[in-house]
Amino acid sequence: MDLVGVASPEPGPAAAWGPSKCPWATPQNTISCSLADVMSEQLAKELQLEEEAAAFPEVVVAEGPFITGENTDTSSDLMLAQMLQMEFDREYDAQLRREEKKFNGDSKVSISFENYRKVHPYEDSDSSEDEVDWQDTRDDPYIPAKPVPTPKKGFIGKGKDITTKHDEVVCGRKNTARMENFAPGFQVGDGIGMDLKLSNHVFNALKQHAYSEERRSARLHEKKEHSTAEKAVDPKTRLLMYKMVNSGMLETITGCISTGKESVVFHAYGGSTEDEKEDSKVIPTECAIKVFKTTLNEFKNRDKYIKDDFRFKDRFSKLNPRKIIRMWAEKEMHNLTRMQRAGIPCPTVVLLKKHILVMSFIGHDQVPAPKLKEVKLSSEEMKEAYYQTLHLMQQLYNECTLVHADLSEYNMLWHAGKVWLIDVSQSVEPTHPHGLEFLFRDCRNVSQFFQKGGVKEALGERELFNAVSGLNISADNEADFLAEIEALEKMNEDHVQKNGRKAASFLKDDGGPPVLYDE
Ligand code: ADP
Ligand code: MN
């Protein structure tokens, strides 16, 4: 049996292609978006719509996955048909693999069905333009009535009946047969079944068209994948993001890099600011866009962080939930700015727009720097990371007057040989009614992570707490230690109740570390 199918010139990487591997240019990060996310976004959307409708006149946003500022056409039926065809081809191939397995069973000699695979030629190759050799004249098994091959000498026959390889009829038939090499989704009509003779000119034009259609289709499919991620934000948010691109501040929003409970983070290439004002900033080449989720649920879980933060306390009571969500973004911005000033490695704030915070991207070429949780460090690097973290925590407490309050290996990135702090929307001042408890929790996470990671020098959680806060809590077990922390917090609150926050000099005149009252 002749099993030679539509063999691609090279066996190509198609054989290795499995369901987990995306054949298109894959976004470097997993896109996660659950139904629950989408549903909660709908709730959020309803909340936001009224208010923002007034502020933003309707603009038609192309339902494009990338936000590039260019108009993207995704409405073509042909494109959709081709995407479906690709989907079908893939399913067909999966079925083929199953058949193949069944056919071969445990037999020592196996038969490969590889050549019957349907996957798009695009997926079969690394798809650099010149890899697809449309003029390949090697035997084409699908030629219905095989034209007489032209021998090496370039002609057959004799005298008047001589036929050269340029013969119109032969060549035309070959061209018609070769059309079968076009992508499966490409409409070539019934020509293949007939004795149709395509001139070289027509064939080449058609070939060119087929190829560009194919690439278009692949590009489109790639975009479709990104758009799934973009659905993680509501239309109003998308509109705000679109405006950032439209204004030129961002060049392209490439896709989603993280979908969390409370935020969705996108990667974008920075553009430039038009206005030549002195304070206009240089936009970083790569940006991260953190979109705070505008759901009531999450805000409820977290209000303890903000409601008691005296910086926001006055405003809290007057605000509606949507505005409180914006305060999260604002809080992250302020906290990052403080950290930046202290020289702590962290993202630089680029822009705050409602619940969207644009900052510099920690990473390179769309690949975010790994979290300490994910990165495999040598023991030397691990030790180095530990000392850096200790120093960061002290700087944060003493110079920024902040407690991270969600510090762990998940919110520390390893980039350019340094530990970078991110995710500081919930960070509070140490004098926050629960500030010291938050600090203790941070210390526990950090201590456990580095101790488990084999750093012998890593302080235990209680020692670390004292080393960061400068407090001298001597309790030698956790319960007592925590009791002391809570007593301190209470004393502090009582002082505030008595004397008022403004009267209290929590900060030294030089802006140094806060002093907790222990009178
Ligand atoms: P969440 O509240 O969802 O945890 P984070 O601020 O921690 O929000 O962001 C989620 C993830 O997005 C991070 O773990 C990190 O991988 C990525 N990320 C966030 N900000 C940046 C940034 N500035 N540069 C690179 N990656 C970032
Ligand atoms: Mn985080």
TrEMBL record:
Enzymatic reactions: L-threonyl-[protein] + ATP = O-phospho-L-threonyl-[protein] + ADP + H(+); L-seryl-[protein] + ATP = O-phospho-L-seryl-[protein] + ADP + H(+)
Region (Disordered): 121-159, 500-519
Any Gene Ontology CC annotation: cytoplasm
Entries under Pfam families matching the protein: RIO1
Record-listed E.C. numbers: 2.7.11.1
Compositional bias per record (Acidic residues), positions renumbered to this chain: 124-134
GO biological process: defense response to virus; innate immune response; ribosome biogenesis
Broad class of where this protein is predominantly found: cytoplasm
Keyword annotations from UniProtKB, A to Z: Antiviral defense, ATP-binding, Cytoplasm, Immunity, Innate immunity, Kinase, Magnesium, Metal-binding, Nucleotide-binding, Phosphoprotein, Ribosome biogenesis, Serine/threonine-protein kinase, Transferase
Location in the cell: Cytoplasm
Cross-referenced SMART domains: RIO (SM00090)
Domain called RIO kinase: residue spans: 222-470
GO terms, molecular function: ATP binding; metal ion binding; protein serine/threonine kinase activity
Main enzyme class: transferase
Cofactor(s) the protein requires to work: Mg(2+)
Similarity section: Belongs to the protein kinase superfamily. RIO-type Ser/Thr kinase family.
Assembly description: Interacts with CASP10. Interacts with IRF3; RIOK3 probably mediates the interaction of TBK1 with IRF3. Associated with 40S pre-ribosomal particles.
Function of the molecule: Involved in regulation of type I interferon (IFN)-dependent immune response which plays a critical role in the innate immune response against DNA and RNA viruses.
Protein name: Serine/threonine-protein kinase RIO3
High-level lineage: Eukaryota, Metazoa, Chordata, Craniata, Vertebrata
